[in-house]
Amino acid sequence: MKRYIKDYAFLFLISGTVILLDQWTKNIVRSNLSFGEIWPQNHWIVDYARIVHWANTGAAFGIFQDFGTVFSILAVVVSVAIIYYFPKVPREDWLIRAALGLQMGGAIGNLIDRLRIGHVTDFVSLHRFAVFNVADASISIGTALLVLGLWQNERKEKAKQSLSANEEDPEPQDLSSTPPFEEVQGE
Predict the structure, then answer these.
(1) Of the residues 25, 96, 115, 185, which has the maximum number of CB atoms within 10 A of its CB?
(2) Which residues lie below 8 Å from residue 138, measured CB to CB, with a gap of 6+?
(3) Which of these is catalytic: 7, 66, 113, 122?
């Protein structure tokens, strides 16, 4: 039981932090900017980075607009799957565990918006890239960390298999180039 508490404490700490940061930043945007309003205005940086109050009825970065219900269901399914699967991930795989926490936090952060206001509030706009939010970034970073963690695990497993194969069946040494043994005579 203690193991599950420790496991879930890690998961809920990461996902909870993402949810709080996501909801806090979205609330600041909704409270201070009208829909479509950009901050800062008339500044050289606006061409490269800006805060804009935007609504998204699709997935991360504005793709698949008007599929909000599908993504709400998907967020619940993904969160339940993460909660179920998380204790099965070894503690040494901290990268995968962190990735799952980030993904769950992002999914729930956007789900809260969909359930409360019917769409997701996006606000970060970089150059010509799609407008996104903390939850979207968390999902993307979590996905990248998951891929990296799985890749690392695969490399470790291949190295371990290679090592165990070499120990079981060592290659015979070529003794043809070894100089013959010469006795050393005493003085």
Answers:
(1) 96
(2) 18, 22, 102, 103, 105, 106, 109
(3) 122
Taking only the tens place, the pLDDT of each residue in 164-173 is: 777 765 555 5
133 touches 121 (CB < 8 A): yes
State the amino acid at position 70 in one-letter form: V
Instruction: Please write the tens of the pLDDT for every residue from 52-80.
Output: 999 988 776 666 677 778 889 999 999 99
pLDDT at 53: 94
DSSP state of 46: G
* Total residue count of the chain as it appears in this document: 187
Cβ–Cβ < 8 Å for 138, 47: no
Range of the domain at 106: 2-155
Q: Is residue 169 part of a domain?
A: no
Q: Which string of b and e fits 37-73 if b means at least 16 CB within 10 Å?
A: ebeeeeeeeeeeebbbbbebbbbbbbeeeeebeebbe
pLDDT value, residue 161: 84
Does residue 178 belong to any structural domain of this protein?
A: no
Counted domains in the chain: 1
Lateral strand order in the sheet of 38-39 = 38-39, 49-56, 120-126
Are 138 and 22 within 8 A, CB to CB?
Answer: yes
- What letter represents residue 41's amino acid? Q
- pLDDT-above-90 percentage for the chain: 60
